[in-house]
Specification:
The protein is α+β, with helices and mostly antiparallel strands. It has three helices and five strands. It has helices at about 5-25, 65-75, 85-90; strands at about 5, 40-50, 55-60, 80, 95-105. The protein has a five-stranded mixed β-sheet with strand order 1-4-2-5-3. Helix 1 packs antiparallel against helix 2.
């Protein structure tokens, strides 16, 4: 079994990595293939570490948020979860969920 991780930590890591990717592509000498990375949507399947029911979809909404606003939204999500595929598959259906992040990277 994998180590339980707070949901906010997973989300914050993903947001920071998307910002890093955007910055790296934008600073590539030839502009790179993703020089105009303006937004992204990421979905992560998880299972609650305690086996208790979770919301099927955890999301800040349908509209993309700037990275800083999304990180602030993630702060209270302290529920510990498992993200390894084997752990998610063996969890009860009610204990499974998806974290959906929509990030606006243009002008951020």
């Amino acid at each position: 079994m994998a180590t339980p991780i707070p949901l906010n930590r997973i989300g914050t890591y993903l947001v920071h990595e998307l910002v890093r990717a955007r910055d790296a592509f934008a600073s590539a000498p030839d502009g790179g293939p993703f020089a105009a990375l303006v937004g992204a949507e990421v979905s992560v399947a998880f299972a609650s570490a305690d086996g208790l029911p979770v919301e099927p979809v955890v999301s800040a909404g349908d509209e993309p948020l700037p990275p800083d606003a999304l990180v602030r939204w993630l702060e209270p999500l302290e529920r510990r979860v498992l993200v390894a595929q084997a752990d998610v598959k063996k969890a009860d259906e009610a204990a499974r969920g998806r974290l959906v992040l929509r990030v606006a990277l243009e002008g951020a």
